[in-house]
């Protein structure tokens, strides 16, 4: 068996091949080109729409991000105002409590002073009575005579008036 290799094909075979290719081209163009072109155009349009939608969504997202950042900053500012207001109110309450405590302490001190004054007067009255009783006892021993109660009280009052309150308080 012998193989023949032709470098240049036969003219009849070439023409038949050319005719078959042209027919195949028109058949494929008629049946495949339009649907494939239509599909490619639709796909291109869909991709472009998706890109446009993505750009639109990105713009909306950026706008929302800006709005959220503004809202967050406003919330932070409002939080700071609330904290500052609460701190001021706390200071006012503290000052009110201190004032009330001072008023109460002053009242307690004043009541204590009055009580001390009453106790002092009571003690002075007791000292006066005891001094009078001692004076009468001494006087009765000296004169060896018993005095009546009215006369004793008169003598005590006279003695206290003569000596004076200044000497009793010192």
UniProtKB/TrEMBL annotation:
It is a single-pass membrane protein. The chain crosses the membrane at residues 12-32. Residues 102-133 form a coiled coil. The keyword Transmembrane applies. GO terms for molecular function: proton-transporting ATP synthase activity, rotational mechanism; proton-transporting ATPase activity, rotational mechanism. The keyword Protein biosynthesis does not apply. Gene3D superfamilies: F1F0 ATP synthase subunit B, membrane domain. Keywords: ATP synthesis, Cell membrane, CF(0), Coiled coil, Hydrogen ion transport, Ion transport, Membrane, Transmembrane, Transmembrane helix, Transport. InterPro entries: ATP_synth_B-like_membr_sf, ATP_synth_b/b'su_bac/chlpt, ATP_synth_F0_bsu_bac, ATP_synthase_B_chain. It is found in: Cell membrane; Endomembrane system. Its main location: membrane. GO terms for cellular component: endomembrane system; plasma membrane; proton-transporting ATP synthase complex. Belongs to the ATPase B chain family. F-type ATPases have 2 components, F(1) - the catalytic core - and F(0) - the membrane proton channel. F(1) has five subunits: alpha(3), beta(3), gamma(1), delta(1), epsilon(1). F(0) has three main subunits: a(1), b(2) and c(10-14). The alpha and beta chains form an alternating ring which encloses part of the gamma chain. F(1) is attached to F(0) by a central stalk formed by the gamma and epsilon chains, while a peripheral stalk is formed by the delta and b chains. Component of the F(0) channel, it forms part of the peripheral stalk, linking F(1) to F(0). F(1)F(0) ATP synthase produces ATP from ADP in the presence of a proton or sodium gradient. F-type ATPases consist of two structural domains, F(1) containing the extramembraneous catalytic core and F(0) containing the membrane proton channel, linked together by a central stalk and a peripheral stalk. During catalysis, ATP synthesis in the catalytic domain of F(1) is coupled via a rotary mechanism of the central stalk subunits to proton translocation. This is ATP synthase subunit b. It comes from Anaerosalibacter massiliensis. The gene is atpF.
């Amino acid at each position: 068996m012998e193989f023949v290799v032709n470098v240049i094909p036969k003219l009849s075979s070439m023409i038949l091949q050319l005719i078959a290719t042209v027919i195949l081209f028109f058949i494929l163009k008629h049946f495949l080109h339009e649907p494939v072109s239509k599909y490619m155009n639709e796909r291109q349009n869909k991709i472009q729409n998706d890109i446009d939608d993505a750009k639109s969504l990105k713009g909306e997202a950026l706008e929302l991000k800006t709005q959220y950042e503004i809202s967050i900053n406003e919330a932070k500012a409002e939080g700071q105002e609330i904290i500052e207001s609460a701190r001021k109110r706390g200071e006012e309450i503290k000052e009110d409590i201190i004032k009330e405590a001072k008023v109460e302490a002053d009242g307690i001190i004043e009541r204590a002073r009055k009580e001390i004054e009453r106790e002092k007067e009571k003690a002075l009255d007791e000292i006066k009575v005891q001094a009078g009783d001692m004076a009468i006892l001494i006087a009765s021993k000296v004169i060896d005579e018993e005095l009546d109660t009215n006369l004793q009280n008169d003598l005590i009052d006279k003695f206290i008036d003569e000596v004076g309150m200044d000497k009793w308080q010192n």
